Amino acid sequence: MSDLLYLEDLVVGQKFTSPMHALDAAQIKAFASQFDPQPFHTDEAAAKATFFGGLAASGWHTAAITMKLLASTKPGIAGGLIGAGGEIAWPQPTRPDDVLQVTSEILEVKPSRSKPERGMAVMRSETKNQRGEVLQILTSRLIVPKRRPEAI
Amino acid sequence: MSDLLYLEDLVVGQKFTSPMHALDAAQIKAFASQFDPQPFHTDEAAAKATFFGGLAASGWHTAAITMKLLASTKPGIAGGLIGAGGEIAWPQPTRPDDVLQVTSEILEVKPSRSKPERGMAVMRSETKNQRGEVLQILTSRLIVPKRRPEAI
């Protein structure tokens, strides 16, 4: 079996576990200063008086780290991880000492009606920290090539 | 009227337009090398043979730039832009020469049932390039403080 997964290799319920990523305050501030320069993401002292009560990562930083972890999860998907979109939720803030890991499950696999060479997979990815707290839930629609394109 | 918007200041149909952000290949590769190191995001030549047919930004890079543009849109929201989650779609790839701008519209405003000091706003944000092509549609649930918390 190939090292890479095609649409035919994906089944509902299939699970994947990513490597881990250790976050710290410097990474949180570096991302935020470029993309989300709000006090609760850039300054510990200022963050205390905000909704978050302390420094928290931008949700988009959590999303970006999740992408990095998904891209390094084995086995990979043929053609790469190409998302058409999805739903994202951040049930609680990501904090400076969090170690992130992503567990994913295939929820749906469907061939394309119009494109014989590919299909769509729906995948639910939970990003948790070292205490098992769920920081992000992403349900993504992935474009996945077929190993054997069918005539239509 | 204050420079910052509270829940009471938001109305369905209200629109906001962000500043602009000019992208380039170096930014695309820098983000991708850190968070989404796939060939179609990191290497022009390798990208040609992929689904994208050329260098494209990671969807999460488009999302991060969108956040930056939303954070610098005036007037701002009191307490900052705090998202609980939402839906995201990337109808087409973001390319190296794109100039991004975000137009947003308030779709829904609802006080919290349990928290007298805040509520939720649903906002639809379209990220377009200089040709008006829609690169990202984000429908986000924002946590917005009230100017005058009510007793419940």
From TrEMBL, chains A, B:
It comes from the Bacteria. Residues 14-113 form the MaoC-like domain. InterPro entries: HotDog_dom_sf, MaoC-like_dom, MCH/BMMD. It holds the Pfam family MaoC_dehydratas. This is MaoC family dehydratase.
